[in-house]
Amino acid sequence: MTRGNADVGGLLVPLVMPMRPDGCLDPDSYARHARRVLDAGARGFWVNGSSGDFHAIGEDDSIETVVIARAVAGPDVPIIAHVGDTATARSVRKARRSMDAGADHVAAITPYYADYTHEELVSHHARIAEASGRSVFLYQHPATGKAPLPVGTIIGMVKDGVCGGIKESGVDIDYFEELVTCAREHDCGLRTFHGAGGRALETLGMGSSGIITVLANLLPGTCASLYRCVVEDDLEQARRHQDRVDELARALAASMPTRSTAAPAVAAIKYVLSELGIHQHDLVMDPLRPLDELERSALRQQVLPMAAEELTGN
Known about the structure:
Elements lengths: L9 E5 L12 H13 L4 E4 L11 H15 L5 E4 L5 H14 L3 E5 L8 H15 L3 E5 L10 H9 L3 E6 L4 H14 L4 E4 L5 H7 L3 E2 L8 H12 L3 H21 L7 H13 L17 H10 L1 H9 L2
Parallel strand pairs: 1-2, 1-8, 2-3, 3-4, 4-5, 5-6, 6-7, 7-8
Helix pairs in contact: 1-2, 2-3, 3-4, 5-6, 8-9, 9-11, 10-11
């Protein structure tokens, strides 16, 4: 039985997807990583998002991640499965399959190839909500897709039962604050998350529902503690956790100085997880260039110690 969105909050980890040499999902590594972040304090999973190579993996693999996540999570941990695609029919099909596989909710990025009106996009998400039997979590990522929908449009979608939550990954923090504020004023139950780990403390302070950041794949305990400290109004300790997250982000960037997009960060996280023995391989999806030895060496020096410390609790 699927749950409502009221209990979706705290740290939701956008799981990265480990691969086998044949280019398919490595289920054992995926399950091992999911168990680790859950044990560290995650409140739920966000599967098949950008961190999970949704744009590159096959549909069957994307459904298998839901099955594995559900097996690890048990009945009480919420799973949000991203099903966004370039056309409504594709998203609808994946939404039905994901819900049948055990997802509690589906998420959908704004179709990212052709241009559509706001009315067409509302209709697109309404079709996905109808197919899943649940309100949809919007996934807005302007750097790789379209401009975000107007706040008023989103609030209307919530009132119509089309939208139940949102992960906003844009750089316009004022837009996100307006969205959180309007959701609170309308008391509409919208669950709000921001994808930038470096803004976690700031966005939680605005009243967002939790944290969804790729950095939680390496620092799940720190991110979970950051959320808990904000809830408990221990802002001094929350700042220490935020500083740790920021330190990781800087170390990742310094390890790959010639790369400028988000995809190499996912590659770096896969490599560190393989060095920790959580993933069996650190393979990446073509056409992304694999990490070179200079990058791997820098990651071993700058990032691996932080992740290892988190893993051992030392």
